[in-house]
Amino acid sequence: MPPPRTREGRDRQDHHWAPSEEEALEKWDWNCPETRRLLEDAFFREEDYIRQGSEECQKFWTFFERLQRFQNLKTSRKEEKDPGQPKHSIPALADLPRTYDPRYRINLSVLGPDTRGSQGLGRHLPAERVSEFRRALLHYLDFGQKQAFGRLAKLQRERAALPIAQYGNRILQTLKEHQVVVVAGDTGCGKSTQVPQYLLTAGFSHVACTQPRRIACISLAKRVGFESLSQYGSQVGYQIRFESTRSAATKIVFLTVGLLLRQIQREPSLPQYEVLIVDEVHERHLHNDFLLGVLRRLLPKRPDLKVILMSATINISLFSSYFSNAPVVQVPGRLFPITVVYQPQEAEPTTSKSEKLDPRPFLRVLESIDHKYPPEERGDLLVFLSGMAEISTVLEAAQTYASHTQRWVVLPLHSALSVADQDKVFDMAPPGVRKCILSTNIAETSVTIDGIRFVVDSGKVKEMSYDPQAKLQRLQEFWISQASAEQRKGRAGRTGPGVCFRLYAESDYDAFAPYPVPEIRRVALDSLVLQMKSMSVGDPRTFPFIEPPPPASLETAILYLRDQGALDSSEALTPIGSLLAQLPVDVVIGKMLILGSMFSLVEPVLTIAAALSVQSPFTRSAQSSPECAAARRPLESDQGDPFTLFNVFNAWVQVKSERSRNSRKWCRRRGIEEHRLYEMANLRRQFKELLEDHGLMTGAQATQVADSYSRLQQRRERRALHQLKRQHEEGAGRRRKVLRLQEEQDGGSSDEDRAGPAPPGAGDGVDIQDVKFKLRHDLAQLQAAASSAQDLSCEQLALLKLVLGRGLYPQLAVPDAFNSSRKDSDQIFHTQAKQGAVLHPTCVFAGSPEVLHAQEPEAGSCDGSRDDKDKMSSKHQLLSFVSLLETNKPYLVNCVRIPALQSLLLFSRSLDTNSDCSRLVADGWLELQLTDSESAVRLLAASLRLRARWEGALDRQLAHQAQRRLEEEEQDAPVSPKEVATLSKELLQFMASKIPYSLRRLTGLEAQNLYVGPQTIPATPHLPGLFGSSTQSPHPTKGGYAVTDFLTYNCLTSDTDLYSDCLRTFWTCPHCGLHAPLTPLERIAHENTCPQAPQDGPPGAEEAAPETLQKTSVLQRPYHCEACGKDFVFTPTEVLRHRRQHV
């Protein structure tokens, strides 16, 4: 038991009694946490060179401990020789630089506590120890600068050894004399990193360098920033989608081609740039080819603008001649000798039926390297594979091999990985261990990885092509070109003699095409044509492409944009097309955003549109994991994939808002790639800002903070987040990290097992994506939107499906008639142009297809068939899908189910009927048979009215917003909230209508004999149009009557004759009591113009009488009432009834 403290002892402790100088020196402990805290508070403040809690702070203390150990050792030796030597002196350090000249020092002021007003520090720490600490700090800074200068000297030697170093002055001189210069260099010549620096040295301060991929922008900005001694993000920066390090001091910016085109769209003359570097032009990407055409037109208007085209030595004359024989500076590559080994794969049975790629030839290469080359010889392996599926197959086998040998670290590399996982390929392997990098063609030119000595070339590449006939994207595997094979081989000879293993025969190589097919000749061009129309570059057919696309592809794109309403009949942009051109998404996704802006469902539409614009967040490995499937099941929606993604994002936001939960673990447990959710959040914010800029939604209300304490807490949190971000950026690139042997586990994420964001000073433990997310987004607003999404009513859900369905139309699929007798994995669907499509394995309906089957026949209907082809039901459904992708099968991707009859009546671009409207054909391929012709007529009339009101309201809103942007002043909204609410109510009532009908896909023979053809009766009357803008007349090709631009009445072949439109039956109007013999067409006309019909909309879909529709019936004539002074369009019976009202 310790003795009790005396009163004097208590007083000395309570009043912070300071010991004497001698006592303090004897009991001094540098490792005391309180001592270190006091020193850090005094010397490592926020504005100092070393900040408290930073990685640099940890490095200093490590250095300081070494200093103390050396000091103690040196002092004891000197005491033996000279006991009179003062104990507290600091001798020269043997491990600090001796030859470093201090005049090269970057002078940094190290202020002590005496100059900062912290006089209280002297009461806690002896002045002698403080001075000693200050001298140690100066030693550390001096030592660090000496190391930096050593690295700089090595860097300058490496730069001088690059082949392009001898051509720097020539490039600058040629650029001075010409406006366009082509720099062609082989692999390893250094053109991508050195040419921007030559321009910076020559005095250019506004340089843009385009790259085809985001990963190349980031890696090149880091490298050039390091080599030019610029602080990362200062003079050299990058700008990609959702992320930018560009500042006012930036002189060189690396950006994607798409972003530069967006800048040209806003400022066609590009006044912010002096020099444009277009890198990797030989890859012939779609936007790269378009950018070259834009620059060719821009250069005469900007004679001061310089352009440098950088290419591999592939088809150089094509680019030179395109720019009026621009001069070419050809730089030889710096390649060491490369041994090419042809190892054609023998025909061997694969390990499983579903596995197209056999990983054994790749494992044999690993074995041969292990046997032939000792582990002391450095050299990593780069394997080129065609796609992510192939990477996953080889990755699994290579990881198994690596776990046995302990001599390999296997890493994937493709564009779908997060930036953090992509960066791991640049890290170092442990001693005696090699890296095996499994990559797509992204590593051919866009990414350069040092240390590669061995290359395995599978000879295959996957490319996306578009089939305009089937209207699908086709991801196919092709043999590469000879130019690509040479590019891959060159990756093995950058740092020393290398070996390239080609897994094909030399005869195969000789049969390869010389160059790859340009992307513009094999992909869909609708987005490009829309962008060209927005940039006012003229007719796409006559645009000066470096190699023009196929004329059929251009015509298909123009027709598609006209069908989507983005172009009018003269191929000019419509109001909705102008807005679609501003949105960085596909046309169908952009339509969703615009349509959703009309209703009070903007927040859920924003989330769904963002989710459909990124790659699927569900991992491939999770598809076969029962644990992941069970954890993800509560998030799945039986309405479709967009709603499942909607639930996933909202649940993730809720997890993010709870500090006690770790979102990375939450995602990993459910088989979700979290960086896809970060992309959704970023894209959602961008969509929201675009809609706000165009006036399609009001700006978000500022979050009200409860009190000053909450505001203070918010500022503290953001300050801490900024500090974490700054520390991460400063620490990145300072030294190459060393990989662990198990680095590839869990998809290659080395930090996934760490729980939660790390505190300041945690170094690599910080989740930088989480930090950026919290800095970029208002988490409270996202949480509020996610919470409100959980309370969506059935009506709101139905309206949301309606918006999605119209946005995705005409991308529809109908279930096969025999699906009810098939098992889950064999469900078949048909689109208009492609038969036999199946559900994608990630589709929510793939596991529960029964929700897509039509219900059992309703009471009173006769159906004895075993299939759904002739089943009479009110529950038939169609699938709207985002894309149709064909790999080994045609897959429907991201599907949502919608009611068939109502959707077709509201969305169809072509709607044809028979004489009593009991048979309808939508878009020439889907037939609907209704048993009740009375209900069919009423439903058709309601759909005409709703389509007109919806389209009119949307056109007025878009035209109003465009006019307001031009006049830059606030105006009253053209569509009132009451009108929107009424329209929403009537749309929901229409969608909820229940009428039994059958649904089937027409056969090819039936579609050819669908219409009655042109009518030859000369006495056929010309009837007034339903909308009053034009008269309805016989359709010139289908027959029948063209009622609107999409509806043709009585044009379908049937058992009745051509005179059936003149056959009338007695009918009584439910509104005004008119009883007369009318045809179905005349009944629709009367219902649409009946003066006694309700003006606020019908209570249900069976009662539809819009006030906007006008005269159609041959019985109606213009009538002016003298009593009330109004004009009407009445039949004789209606005239008499109206006159009686004034009696």
What do you see in this structure?
The protein has 1143 residues and is of the alpha/beta class. Among the domains are: 16-154, no CATH class; 162-331, P-loop containing nucleotide triphosphate hydrolases (Rossmann fold, 3-Layer(aba) Sandwich), CATH 3.40.50.300; 338-517, P-loop containing nucleotide triphosphate hydrolases (Rossmann fold), CATH 3.40.50; 583-699 and 716-799, no CATH class; 810-857 and 869-882, no CATH class. Helix content is 39%, strand content 14%. An eight-stranded mixed β-sheet has the order 4-3-5-2-6-7-1-8, sandwiched between helices. Strands 25-24-23-22-29-28-27-26 form an eight-stranded mixed β-sheet. Strand 28 and strand 29 (1047-1049) form a beta hairpin. The longest helix has 35 residues, at 127-161. The radius of gyration is 36 Å and the shape is globular.
